[in-house]
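Protein Entry — a single chain follows
Fields — amino acid sequence, structure tokens
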Amino acid sequence: MIYLDNGATSFPKPLSVRRAVARAMARCANPGRGGYAAAMAAARQVYRCREAAGALFDCRPEQVVLTASCTHGLNIAIRTLVKPGGRVVVSGFEHNAVTRPLHALGAELQVAGQRLFDWTDTLEQFDKALRPGVDAAVFTHVSNVFGYILPVEQIGAMCRERGIPFILDAAQSAGTLPVKLETLGADFIAMPGHKGLLGPQGTGLLLCRAGAEPLLYGGTGSMSIAQTMPPELPERLEAGTLNVPGCAGLETGIRQVLSAGEQAIFRREHRLAMDCAGKLEKMGMQVYTGEHQAATVSFLPGMDCEEAAAMLAKQGIAVRAGLHCAPLAHESAGTLETGTVRVSFGWDNTSAQTEAFLSAATKFPRFRR
């Protein structure tokens, strides 16, 4: 199989990640639940994961909360900053992981910036929207549908100047673009462990600049006599047993990113994406591409997108089609009725795989005619 759906999850995982997961399952028990060797090995593994994340994202290990997904972290952050009925500014390219928790709170959403690959429009619209009375801003770093890299440093600076707390969704950027907690000054940054960080599914990180409100309540292995969650991070947000094998795989994936370098990873993936986009355009496809684009390319195949993806799957090419859990992004781009076919490149893709995908795409009915 030629896998071009890294926007959903990185696959296959590096061998070192798979080995780390297996090793933890053989050696680690439950962290914080005992002083015996297997429990202590688990505690050390969890802390090493926090240390690796702190090194990559410019924060202290204690600011790194281990979550089950980026969605989990976003729910914690949103429920900390946004009260029922609150006013929130979002970009026009948000995933349901942002919009659904906000809708569940009955939040009043103001959408800022709906022009693809247009930093001027995005910044102008955020400048207008970030006004007194806004409780928080939540915005993605990179659109999961179109690969649009938003000007998050500038938006973050606007928020800080106006005293508006903000949350960054780094689902599509962590591991390939600089994501620094202190530099951005974000209140929270949420990310998955299983995409650009190359870790297992079921892992995620929430970087916290200060305190937060728990989403789950339960045992933490500390302060057992109290019936409230511990006041300190990260235990305050980590009720229940942690995914220790996942932490082991995630730590290994993060260290691989640290070793390779985010810039080198981005340059390689971006080169493949831009080559793919250019050749799709030469084939006559409608391709959504432009300045400030990451390693994701969406296009219209001249037929039903789901059927096109199914045709590719039969030829051993894995892509994603549809609305990609981001109807707001499609509304912004004018593709809400059709969806798109999305090609998203990752750590081990090659030019030969791009050529195989393009060759398979020539079998769409439009070319047979």
User: Anything to note?
Assistant: The longest strand covers residues 87-91. The chain has a mean pLDDT of 96.
